[in-house]
Design brief:
The chain has 12 helices and 7 strands. With 328 residues, the chain is an alpha/beta fold.
Length: 328
């Protein structure tokens, strides 16, 4: 949800043609970091920020600068791929998610691997980058095995086909100019500055921390009590952008960003028939807020939106606002 993979080239082409400077690029809601990764080809420094634990650990894994031992991690990956699930005891992950979000035997392997990574970290057998790489590799591995339609708000209530857990290490980046944060975006912008800020907040009521609660749970590994059919923990990291406070929160963000340019992604799902997909900020409100802080151009592109099948979008478009901020 919210993935900009198919739009990244379009976004970056507009940014390159409409802006000047290659110093610092701020991706204040980095998500999957696909836009930030593309920005690394041009900018000397890229600031990544996301409030989710699972996203933050992936940034540490891909873009961290701490050296790591590839031979050690390859050996561990091979060890994890030779696990016999029949000899693994039931664990927190398998008891809660086995037979629901993941096939039962695979869920035992996932829980065992996650606990083993934690044990090795506590025993100082892994440095923080190696720890992040293993956790990120685990997320990418199990993402392909999830019994869902792309998020963890529900699982498919059918027998789960058994597939092997093929643990693969991620390929890390050589970019050395990443600065990584896990903070409330509106607080962070008061302490950073750059040439341009790319802004792609959540616009509807779907909270990312609730949609991807299994990854958040797996990364934190606090083993909380879970509730409801979807087996979610108590709410945390809830975004104001998914509430009635969205408009004022966005206004505060763009007014306090210390940059020359703002690039804002927006899609027109506020016409959606689904209440949860309905945007909390309208196109007109976004335009008005941006026009108040700078000279704004609007670009648009047809785009297929993430859809679980309950919502009908006609002529769905992705908008990119490019604002040159007024001098203070």
């Amino acid at each position: 949800m919210g993935n900009k993979a198919k739009l990244t080239d379009w976004i970056m082409e507009i940014i390159e043609s409409e802006t000047e400077g290659n110093g610092t690029f701020i991706d204040i809601f980095s998500g999957t970091s696909i836009v930030a990764k593309s920005a690394m080809e041009k900018y000397k420094t890229v600031i990544l920020n996301d409030i989710l634990y699972s996203n933050n650990v992936t940034y540490q894994a891909f873009y961290g600068t701490l050296k790591w031992n590839s031979n050690k991690l390859v050996e561990l990956a091979n060890e994890y791929n030779t696990l016999n699930s029949k000899s693994i005891r039931e664990n927190y992950f398998s008891k809660n998610f086995g037979g629901k979000f993941y096939e039962k035997e695979v869920s035992k392997q996932i829980g065992y691997i996650r606990q083993d990574i934690e044990k090795k970290k506590k025993n100082n057998d892994l440095n923080s980058r190696e720890y992040a790489i293993l956790l990120t590799s685990l997320i990418y591995t199990i993402d392909k095995l999830a019994n869902t339609v792309g998020h963890f708000d529900a699982y498919i209530k059918k027998p789960i086909t058994k597939r092997p857990l093929n643990f693969k290490l991620i390929q890390t980046s050589d970019f050395k100019g990443a600065k990584i944060y896990q903070e409330d975006a509106n607080e962070l912008v008061r302490n950073i500055k750059g040439d341009i800020a790319y802004i792609d907040p959540p616009y509807n009521s779907r909270q990312y921390s609730r949609f991807y609660h299994i990854y958040e749970n797996l990364i934190q590994w606090k083993k909380p009590k879970l509730y409801g059919v979807a087996l979610k923990p108590e709410p945390e990291n809830m975004s104001k952008y998914c509430t009635v406070q969205a408009k004022d929160t966005f206004k505060d963000l763009v007014e306090n960003l210390d940059v020359k340019y703002l690039a804002v992604s927006y899609n027109n799902t506020y016409k959606s028939k689904s209440k949860s997909s309905k945007n909390k900020i309208t196109l007109e409100e976004i335009t008005e807020i941006l026009n108040n802080v700078g000279e704004t151009k609007t670009f648009e592109q047809s785009h297929t939106y993430f859809n679980t099948g309950k919502t009908d979008f006609n002529d769905h478009k992705e908008f990119l606002f490019l604002t040159k901020k007024y001098d203070k």
